[in-house]
Amino acid sequence: MNPQAQPPLLQMLQIHKAFSGVAVLRAVDFTVQRGEVHALVGENGAGKSTLIKILGGVHQEYRGHVLLDGRAVRFRSPREAEAHGIAVIHQELALIPHLSVAENLFLAREPTGRTGLLDRRAMHRAAAAVLQQHLGLQLDVSRPVADLPLGTRQLIEIAKALGHHATLLVMDEPTSALSETEAARLFAAIRQLRAGGVGIVYISHKLEEIYALADRITVLRDGQLVGTAAAGDLPPKHLVQWMVGREIEQLFPKHAAIPGPERLRVAGLCLADPRTGRWLLEDVSLHVRAGEIVGLAGLTGSGASELLGAIYGRYGAPPRGAIFVNGQRQTRVSPRAALHSGLALLTNDRQASGLVLPMSVLHNLSLSTLDRCRRGGLLSRRRERERCGPYVQKMNLRGPALTAPVTALSGGNQQKVVLARGLLSEPSILLLDEPTRGIDVAAKADIYALLNELTAAGLAILLITSELPELLALSDRILVLHRGRIIAEFQRGAATQEIILHAAMGGA
Ligand SMILES: Nc1ncnc2c1ncn2[C@@H]1O[C@H](COP(=O)(O)OP(=O)(O)OP(=O)(O)O)[C@@H](O)[C@H]1O
Ligand SMILES: [Mg+2]
Questions:
Q1: Is the model more confident about 429 or about 508?
Q2: Atom nearest to 415 CA in ligand 1
Q3: Which of 108, 198, 149, 437 lies closest to 299 in space, CA to CA?
Q4: Domain with 451 in it: what CATH number?
Q5: Taking residues 214-240, what's their average pLDDT?
């Protein structure tokens, strides 16, 4: 060994970690060099987030060694890790909803003026500069983050980490809520940082991204290291094999829909932004038949998510337009009424409206169908289990016992819980907003198969996904939204990624 050689930026050696006696990381070695993007991949629950939470000072109980620039460190808090030049963007966004964009960016390190008081104007200027400089984002930084779409919130979280001038930047699924254009901006920022010598750990389930960015790839499976390889030496097929321990035959199973009767009709629907009064949706009309999957494509701000929310009654009665379910005009428009008439909605923001975090996995599963788990008026745990069990199996939900808090599940497994809950209500119309976000390739294949099974049995699905291959493969028809209007419609097979993107940008 050359004693003069510079030690790697980061070495994690023989890391062991257990939760309540259950090992989730075993003898994991992980190294990051300066100026490299190192992708960390593996199935849901493989241990990726846990490993980087150790690095980021979130988990302090573990065995093994962490060396930064060859020096042993042991962080007792996230702040300590930050002080050592490590910035982590966690999988679950950590912004404080009621604080403004600027306040979130400068949390606990607000610039103070000469008097030592908080200099709000300076903070706003600095915040706007950070967003503009790193991500080309122009934003009113005095707005509370709760008001902003999920994608923008994710960009703010990223800008927050970039603003730390870290030497080691860790991103746990940073693009899960980003549109293609937003993701492209992020990639440009990452490449710039890499050129400046920053080491970057990149966790993602999107193979395209991994191969576009990564210099090296490390794969974890069931808490153990499978291997590390240069990205060029590990073709996608082998990568998937490393991840799941077998080959995946068919990511998208064949889907042949024989559409039945009309399940959902939306006619001339309008929705106004309560803050500005501007139309979020304007004169939207569509229908979905039994057995059909209708895909909605659109960039951020297209109104696609709002459309699902409006159909589900989240905003009350629309100012104009009508919603028909199974031919019946909906007179009372509310989530309760929607659920009652056979609709289920999976939102894109599982933390804000998807999961009840302190409660058990089982309870989160059966939350909206508790009335069906009763026996003689009392909640029957056995009945609850009987109902949930098949979905737990079909989705390959992995992790601790069903009675454990849902927070003990990995990010992808939490997403499966939200989806399973929607299915448990046995809806006739399913509204899905990014159903496979954060879900690994193998589990995705399981979910596609399940959706096929359900549509074959007569379910109608309205689907939003920013992953275009998924949209193209699953949808029988694709509607493209632009600024709150449907501007194009394509039959299955008539569209390509390029055509959809072109239309979504308003160039129909
Ligand atoms: N706080 C916790 N208590 C108990 N078990 C936990 C806790 N956090 C994580 N686990 C378990 O540790 C294992 C690894 O989880 P981790 O979140 O690291 O997975 P991951 O690779 O990030 O998966 P994903 O792709 O779904 O995000 C899982 O089995 C998970 O259930
Ligand atoms: Mg994770």
A1: 429
A2: 26
A3: 149
A4: 3.40.50.300
A5: 96
Distance, CA 256 to ligand 1 centroid (Å)? Answer: 36
Residue 478, judged by CB atoms within 10 A of its CB (0-12, 13-18, 19+), counts as: buried
Q: Where does residue 90 fall: left (phi above 0), alpha (psi -120 to 50 degrees), or beta otherwise?
A: beta
Do both 218 and 269 map to the same domain? no
Beta-carbon count within 10 A of 450 CB: 17
Q: Does one domain contain both 307 and 432?
A: yes
CA distance 223 to 16: 9
Question: pLDDT tens across 484-497, in order?
Answer: 999 999 998 899 98
To test ligand 1's pocket by mutation, which of 364, 410, 413, 419 has the most ligand atoms within 8 angstroms of CB? 410
**Any domain includes 137:** yes
Q: Is residue 22 pLDDT above 80, yes or no?
A: yes
pLDDT above 70 covers what percent of the chain?
A: 93
Lowest mean pLDDT among 157-171, 242-256, 408-422: 242-256
Boundaries of domain holding 467:
262-504
| Residue range 74-89: mean pLDDT, rounded | 93
Shared-domain flag, residues 236 and 267: no
Exposed e or buried b per residue across 56-71, where buried means at least 16 C-beta atoms within 10 angstroms of its C-beta = bbbbeebeeebbbbee
Please report whether residue 431 resides in a domain. yes
Q: For the chain, how many structural domains are there in total?
A: 2
Element holding 92 (H helix, E strand): none
Q: What is the mean pLDDT of residues 174-198?
A: 88
Instruction: Give the pLDDT score at 308.
Output: 96
pLDDT tens profile 263-318: 999 999 999 988 888 999 999 999 999 999 999 999 878 999 999 999 999 999 88
- 230, 328: one domain: no
Residue of minimum CA distance from atom 2 in ligand 1:
408
Any ligand 1 atom below 6 A from CB of 305: no
Q: Which ligand does the CA of 41 lie closest to?
A: 1
Same domain, 460 and 489: yes
248 Cα–ligand 1 center, Å: 23
CB 423 within 8 A of CB 455: no
- The CB density around residue 380, as the number of other CB atoms within 10 Å, is 13
Domain presence at residue 434: yes
Ligand lying nearest the CA atom of residue 89: 2
Q: Is the domain of 468 the same as that of 354?
A: yes
Q: How far is the CA of 88 from the centre of ligand 2 (A)?
A: 13
Judge if the beta carbon of residue 412 lies within 6 A of ligand 1.
Answer: yes
Tell whether ligand 1 has an atom less than 6 A from the beta carbon of residue 350: no
| Best mutation site among 24, 92, 173, 201 for ligand 1 pocket (most ligand atoms within 8 Å of CB) | 24
C-alpha of residue 81 to centroid of ligand 1, in Å: 21
Instruction: State the ligand closest to the CA atom of 19.
Output: 1
Give the distance (Å) from ligand 1 centre to CA of residue 47.
6
Nearest CA to ligand 1 atom 19: 45
Residue 23 CA to residue 310 CA, distance in Å, equals 44
* For ligand 1, mutation pick of 19, 204, 416 (most atoms within 8 Å of CB): 19
